[in-house]
Amino acid sequence: MALVDEAEAAAVAFQAALVRLGATTITEAISLWRRLSATDPEGTAQAWLEDAVLMVTSRRTQSRELGLAYYRLVRALITGTTIPDPRDPEPTYVTLGDLRTAFAELAESALPSDSDDDLYVPVEPRDQPVSERSDPPGEVMERDDTDVAPVDLTDEELEAALRADAEEREREWDEWERQAEEEARVAMEALGPERYKKKRSKGGDSDEAKRKAGLLQASAAGRIVMNGARGEVFANAERDQRALGYVRLSRTGTPCGWCAMLISRGLVLYRDALSAEVARDGDLYHDNCQCYAEPVFAKSQYRESEIYHLNRLYGEQWPIVTDGTGGKFAVGRWRKFVSLTQDMPEGDRIAFWKKWIDSPEGERFDEALHKRWQ
Fold this sequence. Notes:
Blueprint: H1 3-33, H2 41-79, E1 93-95, H3 96-107, E2 120-122, H4 155-201, H5 206-239, E3 245-250, H6 257-264, E4 268-269, H7 273-276, E5 291-296, H8 299-304, H9 309-321, H10 327-341, H11 346-357, H12 360-373
Antiparallel strand pairs: 1-2, 3-4, 3-5
């Protein structure tokens, strides 16, 4: 398997592992929720909450490690270099086999059968300036280590820079985990026992109220855990001088309207003045969201890869669907387009939309949008 093809396979394995981790978290959160007494929710809520938050923080650490292992591997496969592991910043080289094994164990995926596991991969700081990779238009990108300029540092300077990078990453991790724990505590309490208590006070089926509250708090737990890996990948790419930007990917291929809007932006460049205004949106997710932001290291990686097909398709459809509109009006049109056409063959969607938007129903829809967002 070519290394660039392996990177695409790793992206698929990463998405699958991320979804499994989210599903496992939701299952565990629902199981823990059963400890909340239906007859004494106030008396059992605090013990439930402490156990639930501990479960989420533990799973989130696992998620973050998955994201780091994935990023280190895919960067090595595409660029020929990788970033340091903050827990072991001393090595200035690692083997491709080590990176593959670390990711495969966390993702529960198969190792490739190639015989180049002993290939050495230089380790470099994320924020070290590098020369832009040669990437001629129309050519399929192949990894070529001779085209990757090494960082311009002495051995001592490189070792010091790797340690500084690792120390900065550790500080980021500590702050992220503090914020995540607080988010889990607030969200799960509000969506779980607090919501259940409000529903009970209004009467109705107490068992059904508890079931719905349990599902809501579990979905929030799944999102917070999955954000460990998603945030790790995004933060590394955002700071990484070898990363051009990111592409929003959908695991299901049938994203909601909001995620479809982010997917339609295609390749968002980190260091481009216009793209920088919307770059952070790529790392926002709703409950039960199966998207993530994939790092892109070369423009041909985006142009040629099949995993970005939906981005390219939505990128072509967005200006047609939103023609003559802007802002929230354009977003409203796009969401309607996605909900109406998502199950249609790709070649039929735009023709259907043009006919629908000019119909009486479509005109009423536009009028309602105008009234709402004028």
